[in-house]
Amino acid sequence: MPSDAYEPVRALSEAQLEQFIQDGFVRIDRAFPRELAEQGRAIMWRDIPFDPHDSTTWTRPVIRLPSYAQQPFRKAANTHALHAAFDQLVGKGRWRPRDSLGTFPVRFPHADDPGDAGWHVDVSFPGDGCDPDERHDFSRWRVNITSRGRALLMLFLFSGVTELDAPTKIRVGSHFDMARSLAPAGEAGMSQLVLDRMGADRPEALATGEAGTVYLCHPFLVHAAQMHRGSTPRFLAQPPLHPAEPFQLDRKDGNYSPVEIAIRRALQESRS
């Protein structure tokens, strides 16, 4: 079998589940076939106003491409390995399959600051007064303690990403800090968050890997983009996994998902 042939990964181990709870993310190698990544890049290059073979035409540090729902993207989002991991991390029947992979921020080697490299968590539901038809201005969107509207943050690597290729920066364990910060706001949640110091004393990890790698992240994980210092454009999707039902932090049957366990653990530690 060729070394780059697709081999479905097993379900997450107990150690990986505990890593997700404690660190806020788990990396799945070969989560989708490399061939799908190649097909997806070919589709996206058609919409990029640069020559893929001439770096002198790469005149902007980042290009944001609209949501793609063609077959390579749908297949990448719905492999058996990922569905099994969703069941384990969110709960069977508690998440909705994706039919696309959302916006792609394609990053290019460039001397200019991309202008979007601040530490943040992804907001997940509109606040009062938001235009329901507005799809680009998320300044008034919110995030709350039960992560309304978002079960996971996901990072789909559609190109190989080394330490030089603008890998997403992750503050390991920062989802605990974020949960404790959100708790007082209750279901209403918070918006316009400034998170430069949130989890700043925690170690950093980089979302590197081969094309086909997926990082499944707790929705409260603090992360950031960065400048591209390599030589090859970086293609990455960062869609949410949508919940089929709200997270619950007080289940009568005690059947908590790892996402819920992490939030509960953060709140319990704040009271200890």
TrEMBL record:
It comes from the Bacteria. SUPFAM superfamilies: Clavaminate synthase-like (SSF51197). This is Phytanoyl-CoA dioxygenase (PhyH). The lineage of its organism: Bacteria, Pseudomonadati, Pseudomonadota, Alphaproteobacteria, Hyphomicrobiales.
